[in-house]
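Methods — Computational structure assignment.
A single polypeptide chain was analysed. Its primary sequence is given first, followed by the predicted tertiary structure written as structure tokens.
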Amino acid sequence: MRQRRAVSRMLCQVCGADTLEQDPERQLFVLKDVGRPVGEGELTTAAPVCPPCALIAVEHCPHLRGHVAAWVERPLPWGVAGILYDRDTLSPVPGDDLTKVAYGDPARHWLVATRQVLSLNGCTAVFKDTGYLLPAGAIEPQQPLPREAVTT
């Protein structure tokens, strides 16, 4: 529920702040490195992160030790990710990862969704050595919101 709330409302996945208030024109997405920069139309289940919290995330999250990032102008709802079931056997389809299914795909009826998926459009890939995490005028890191504020 927390992921879907953060993605649908463009809340920072670390502190829960509204990333649209900080910069209504673009949001920062930090993703696990898959060997290439974030590209146009990239699909992700990650929520945006505010620049000060990006520092915290890449330092403390093992998933982001190797990471890529991009400023995104149009993160658009694309579909859902979850466990896909075979319509004939009603057994889960084997796989190591969650299956991503577009909203219009008939397979969505056989998916137990656990996450919302975004398509990242208007991407400007950025690299750690360019100082993207704390651009000029960035605010200081915020205190994380209480758990009940993020989950309700």
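Note: Residues 74 and 121 are 5 Å apart (CA to CA).
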